Each structure stands twice: as structure tokens, then as C-alpha cells.
Amino acid sequence: EWGAKIYEISHIRRRTFNKVKSIAIFRITSFVHWLLRSRSWRSIHSPWLFTLLTSMRSAKFHCADIETLRTELKTNTEVVPVVDYGAGSTGSTSTVSGIAQLSLKRPKHARALAAVAAHLGSSSTLELGTSLGLTSAYLARHSQTLTTVEGNPHILTLAQSHWAQLGIANVRSFSGEFDATWEAFADREYDLIFIDGNHRGEALIRYVEKSLPLLHPNGVMVCDDIHWSPDMEEAWKHLCGMSEWTVQVDAFEWGLLTRNQALKREHVRIRF
């Protein structure tokens, strides 16, 4: 009996190791392919896109209080029950520090999203995937109203406490699986939609297609982790093939789409 259990455990560990190894190899290969076809953001000719990218790199969007909170969360050992509707569940519980270290967007990308909201003068921004609410805080400070949706109610409660701590009061938040709660937040038009949840290719395509009627004609949609897995990469290729989009930006860690008809059609891979 014990021999069978030991064999089962070793088999599970071997499968997990092989899966992690396969994902690592894919991401390295994907990055090399992307890097060989990418170019510097400084080479962009479109005034609209160049201005946006310049703004996205600006240090003026840095928020010291949010980054102080980020540092604190990375040492917070509070246990959080896992409620994961997407890819990547690893157990029944996690910790705040684990989420802060593995799931939060890097400060560089949080600032970039804030810059997009500011560039658009966003009156209403939608975020699918709240996590601990730090990226939400950046978005809220440059949007009149932020609507954010988080699948895990325990994590959303933490995020709400973080917004209160940061003095942010222009957020309306919903808890639940995105599709199940869709009607609750599909009540308005959004200038910026940020999709950062689930991490399954078919789900990304579905969320983008369902979000299209909610997106302002000159609005922007940002999709996170587009090269996270083979099916996410295929989903991004599918989205880029949709006729709606005039500008498609692949920055490897995220992709940006807009259907602004005043812009020339282009697909660019940029080193950001």
C-alpha cells in the first residue's frame, strides 16, 4: 500500500515537473520568436501610438503609496481560500504574499495601464481580474469610474480594504465568474477594458467578443499574458485577425487593441 502511494506521489511530481518544463520551454521559444520580429517603441511613426507609448513609459504615473503597499503585501502571510475559475489553480489555499509575488502586474505595467487611461481621458474603465487591487488603484486614479470584477470574494474583500487604505473611492466592484456576473457591469460604455483573468485562450476570445459592444468606438482593449501558453498565443492571433481592430500592439506580456477608425491599420510588435 505504501509502495503504491509513493509511486503515485512520484508520478504526480514527475508529471508536474514535465508540465512546468514544457511551459518554460514554450515561453522561452515564444519570447525569442517575438524578439526577432519586434522593434523599438521609438521607431513607431503613428503620432497617436507614439504619444501613447511615450506616456506609458513616463515616471509621472508612479504612485509611491501603492508601491509601499505592494512591498507590505509581499511579506503578508495571511491565508486566502482559493476560488479559481481559470487556468492555474494549485491548491485550496494561498497566501497574500504568494498572490502579491506571483499574480500582481509589475509596477512598470501598472503605470502603463494608468497612462492608457489618462491618454484616453477615461470616464469609465473596466477591469476583468481585480486580484489584490493594486493595478485597480492605478487605473482608478486616472479614470472617473473604475468597474472591476474578481472571481474570488475573499481576495475582493482584501482589495476593497486596500482601496480604502489608499483613499480610493471611485471603484465599483463585483465578485463572481465573469460570464455569470456580466449583466451586472454591462450597463455602460467603457473607454478602456483590461482583461486579466482566466488565462484560457477560448475564454479570452469570448471575453473580447462579449466586450466589444461595451467598448467606446475610440476606446482601447488591453489583453494580459497573451503569450502565457500556446492556446493564449493562438487566441491572440485569432483576435488580431478580427476586422474590427485598426491598431494591434504586441508587447509580449500584453496586447493592445483599438478600433479607432481615425488610425491607420497596423500590427506592431514593440520592445516596450
Give structural attributes.
nine-stranded mixed beta sheet, 272 residues, two-stranded antiparallel sheet, globular, alpha/beta, 11 strands
Your description of this structure?
The chain has ten helices and eleven strands. The protein has helices at 2-37, 47-56, 64-73, 96-102, 107-120, 134-140, 153-166, 178-185, 201-211, 230-240; strands at 39-40, 79-81, 93-95, 124-128, 145-150, 171-175, 190-195, 215-224, 247-250, 254-258, 266-271. The termini are far apart. The mean pLDDT is 91.
Furnish the topology, listing elements before pairings.
Layout: H1 2-37, E1 39-40, H2 47-56, H3 64-73, E2 79-81, E3 93-95, H4 96-102, H5 107-120, E4 124-128, H6 134-140, E5 145-150, H7 153-166, E6 171-175, H8 178-185, E7 190-195, H9 201-211, E8 215-224, H10 230-240, E9 247-250, E10 254-258, E11 266-271
Parallel strand pairs: 1-11, 4-5, 4-7, 5-6, 7-8, 9-11
Antiparallel strand pairs: 2-3, 8-10, 9-10
Termini separation: 55 Å
The largest sheet is:
9 strands, mixed
Number of distinct helices: 10
* Average predicted local confidence, pLDDT: 91
Shape: globular
The total beta strand count reads 11
What class would the helix/strand composition place it in? alpha/beta
What topology, given as strand order, has the largest sheet?
Answer: 1-11-9-10-8-7-4-5-6
Low-confidence stretches: none
**Cα radius of gyration in angstroms:** 19 Å
Question: What is the beta-strand fraction?
Answer: 15-25%
Q: Give the SSE string.
A: HEHHEEHHEHEHEHEHEHEEE
Which range best describes the helical content: under 10%, 10-25%, 25-40%, 40-55%, 55-70% or over 70%? 40-55%
